[in-house]
Task: inverse folding
């Protein structure tokens, strides 16, 4: 059996799965996740790709909350906050990548109002 990679799974199937997931209550979505993890462990011929560090952290928090039987509404709010934090971190990462690309290209721009001080005027000092 052959597993899908992001390039192989067609967009129609991705959208169909996503649409079905969106129609489920959150508790059932976690059951779907459990089933996907089960299928991956039983039938997957390779490991899923490693998530970025913050995603991995958030998944660990989520897993621990589920094990501790945290109420669904508390878990949902916590994961919403972690999702927003991930978006902020993504913005910083993207800004950093853009800055490094500009720096490597030799044209890093200064923020508006952050102009360098002009060189001091040269004055001749006459001592008598």
Result:
């Amino acid at each position: 059996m052959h597993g899908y990679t992001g390039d192989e799974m067609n967009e129609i199937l991705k959208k169909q799965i996503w649409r079905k997931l969106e129609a489920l209550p959150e508790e059932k979505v976690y059951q779907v996740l459990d089933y996907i993890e089960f299928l991956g462990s039983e039938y997957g011929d390779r490991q899923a790709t490693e998530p970025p560090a913050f995603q991995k952290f958030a998944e660990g928090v989520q897993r621990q909350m589920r094990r501790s039987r945290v109420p669904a509404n508390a878990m949902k709010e916590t994961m919403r906050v972690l999702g927003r934090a991930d978006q902020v971190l993504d913005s910083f990462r993207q800004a950093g990548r853009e800055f490094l690309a500009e720096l490597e290209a030799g044209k890093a721009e200064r923020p508006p109002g952050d102009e360098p001080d002009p060189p001091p005027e040269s004055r001749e000092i006459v001592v008598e």
